[in-house]
Amino acid sequence: MEVGDFMEIININSLTLAYIGDAIYEVYIREYLIKSGVAKVNDLQNKASKFVSAKGQANYLKMMIDDKFLNDEEMSVVLRARNHKTNSHPKNTDIITYKNATGLEALIGYLYLKKRNDRIDQIMNYIKER
Q1: pTM, 2 dp
Q2: What gap in Å lies between CA 69 and CA 63, rounded to an integer?
Q3: What mean pLDDT is reported for the chain?
Q4: Which CATH number covers residue 108?
Q5: In this structure, is residue 118 part of a structural domain?
Q6: Is 112 or 85 the better-scoring residue by pLDDT?
Q7: What is the pLDDT of residue 1?
Q8: Catalytic residue list contains 72
């Protein structure tokens, strides 16, 4: 998929950005865990849940916001995703946690489509160091 400039990418539905961002985020986490020496699939799943759960993602986003780690453009993407109207969310989490996790996933998706892998690396390193 060839996506054009900032205006075209920013107009993509927030949940669509989160959809691709979720996949990219999970690949980063899986690669990190494998490279850190975790070899058993059950162990990988258990350790990954800290990072890929809605609660974990929401907590990491809150830390980044509190630390002013995100720039204005990135915050705009996060806020748009958090404010996206939705009628449902997973039963194992509250709506606020779900929306914050969606905000982080949308940001990763946005940066991925902008081919900003350098910034995704910075964000993922921030998360892995926490």
Answers
A1: 0.88
A2: 8
A3: 90
A4: 1.10.1520.10
A5: yes
A6: 112
A7: 46
A8: no
